[in-house]
Amino acid sequence: MAKFYITTPIYYVNDVPHIGHAYTTIVADVLARYHRARGNEVHFLMGTDENAQKNVEAALCGQATGARGMATRKIVQRYVDEMSAKWQESWDELDISNNDFIRTTEERHIKYVQEFWKKVFESGDIYKGVYEGLYCTGCEAYKTESELVEGLCPDHKRAPQKLSEENYFFRLSKYRETLLKHIETHPEFVQPEARRNEIIAYIKDHANDFSISRKNLEWGIPVPGDPSQTIYVWFDALLNYVSANSKWWPADLHLVGKDIIKFHCAYWPAMLMSAGLPLPHTVFAHGFFTVDGQKMSKTIGNVVDPVKIAQKYGNDVLRYYLLREIPFGADGDFSETRLRERYNGELANGLGNLVARVLTMVERYVSSVIPDSGRGSMDSLFRGNDNYWGQYESYMQSLILDRALDTVWAYVSELDTLIDRTQPWVLAKKDDKTRLNEVLYILAENLRHIAWMLMPFMPDTTQKIFDQLGLGKSELARDWEETKKWGGLKPGTKIKRGESLFPRLT
Ligand code: MSP
Q1: Considering just the CA atoms, what is the radius of gyration of the chain in Å?
Q2: Using N-to-C axis directions, what is the helix angle for 459-468 and 353-366, rounded to 10°?
Q3: What domain range is 466 assigned to?
Q4: Domain presence at residue 155
Q5: Do 293 and 336 form a contact (C-beta atoms < 8 A)?
Q6: Is the CB–ligand 1 distance for residue 21 below 6 Å?
Q7: What is the reported pLDDT for 444?
């Protein structure tokens, strides 16, 4: 059994999840479900990034100002506890199938980070120096003058803090050549390709040593042997992927947004090399969502709550929309109007209508019993579904998930055409039983295949289709390669046509 270890970024808890966080999480969930179905031993890790200064700012906002030391730590701890619980509740609501959830304030993490620090220190890659720079708490990173726009961080629209303090540094520059070599010899390491070029340029021109501690902070993991210094939040957060359970390391896939590839494709591999650990197989950076064409922001007031959308339309609809709307690797836009259009056009009129059409005909013309396929079902009527499976698998393996869904919808539309061409209602009138049975069998069996392809994307819908086809829960326990073979739906199975899968929205 092959292992498949997949991660999402661990999210800051200074706010609740929005549609962008849900996107990464749902993509990871789709892949985890796909690999589980294929019989791989999947480990899907998520978590919360709790030691960041931005969480402290959020926790103290409006609270006892001037609170220091223990008092601050208590307030922040209570805050991160509450917020982490909220994140976990949101993921439960969205039915995310993660196997573990790591919080960076947990003992397993803190212990590991300190051990890791010591290993890197022993490799000679940590040294003390004075850092002077402009720190943006929004990014939790230092900014160069050239990155600012009129003195402000372009992402957070505020002036970074001027810091000058004695810090520990990590010798990133020492790993420049090795990193470039690794990326060159492992094209799968940074994906998609556009991001690979971006990261190569970054490593060539910028990968300088970076400060990995901050002085006199009230919150965070203390540097081993020097409690006046706190470990820089990225040098702490990245380690969650190993600290959660080192038995799974190395990860097969880190799924991240394009905003944090520098950390995942330059800092992280260099840190791992320094500690003598293997590198993750692939870091995939997806694009970003805007909302109705604008950047999502609290100030604009256009932040979309994924849980509300899921409650309104259903989890599967949200998943389908997000996965279909954002093109592979590129940016996308979230719009509820567009979601409703896709719902009516592709789910209600497309998939839902096809399922209802086929099952109604089975009910009406052959008394709700899957007919015998007679001549073996494969003739001029339908050239088989191997091409759909072939395309689907290849898109899923290369993470081109929107195309995998396009394939399913091409399949749906071929079946619609098949119904129009063969006109089963005419065959029923002519009493052409052989032909009628054959057509209905082909249609129903193909619905089973479509339901399987949709399983990672729309697990509730898949179950509903299986139920309506009379297959029940046992279908889901079948071996993936077996399910792809023609003939899984046995003649004689009694169907149970149920409610419409996607009632039209008005
Ligand atoms: N805590 C760090 C990650 C540490 S991982 C070791 C962090 N957290 S975050 O809460 O800011 O989440 C950033 C991630 O959220 C992005 O990389 C991306 O996965 C997701 N997204 C945030 N906004 C997004 C959009 N507008 N669109 C798509 N994804 C977005 O960075």
Answers
A1: 26
A2: 10
A3: 336-483
A4: no
A5: no
A6: yes
A7: 97
Distance between CA atoms of 389 and 385, rounded to whole angstroms?
6
Ligand 1 centroid distance, CA of 21 (Å): 6
Distance of alpha carbon 379 from its chain centroid, rounded?
40
Give DSSP secondary structure letters for 208-227: --EE-EEES-SSSPEETTEE
Q: Beta strand 210-211 with 161-170: parallel, antiparallel or unpaired? A: antiparallel
Q: What is the pLDDT of residues 473-495, one digit of tens each?
A: 889 999 999 999 999 999 999 99
Which residues make beta-bridge pairs with 332?
289
CATH number at residue 399: 1.10.730.10
- On the CB side of 269, CA atoms within 13 Å amount to 28
Is residue 476, in this structure, part of any structural domain at all? yes
**493 in a structural domain:** no
Which atom of ligand 1 is closest in space to residue 288's alpha carbon?
27
Residue 83, helix vs strand vs coil: helix
Contact 230, 122 (CB under 8 A): no
**What is the domain count for the chain?**
1
Q: CA 436, 437, 438 angle in degrees (round to 5)? A: 90
**C-alpha span between 272 and 238 (Å, rounded):** 10
Cα 141 from Cα 135, distance rounded (Å): 6
Give residues with Cβ within 8 angstroms of 357, minimum separation 6.
Answer: 416, 419
288 Cβ inside 6 Å of ligand 1? yes
The reported pLDDT for the residue numbered 145 is: 83
CB-based contact 23:326 (threshold 8 Å) = yes
- Of the residues 54, 109, 136, 254, only one is catalytic, namely 136
251: Cβ contacts below 8 Å, ≥ 6 apart: 5, 6, 7, 241, 280, 281
CB-ligand 1 contact for 285 (6 Å cutoff)? no
Q: Quickly count: other Cβ atoms within 10 Å of residue 104's Cβ.
A: 27
165 part of a folded domain: no
Closest CA to 160 of 168, 148, 170, 177: 148
Helix spans in 94-192 (H): 107-122, 176-185
pLDDT value of residue 389: 98
Residues of the chain with pLDDT under 50: 65
Do residues 104 and 10 make contact, with C-beta atoms less than 8 angstroms apart?
Answer: yes
Cβ atoms of 147 and 139 within 8 Å: the answer is: no
DSSP state, 294? B
Supply the residue whose CA is at minimum distance from atom 2 of ligand 1: 11
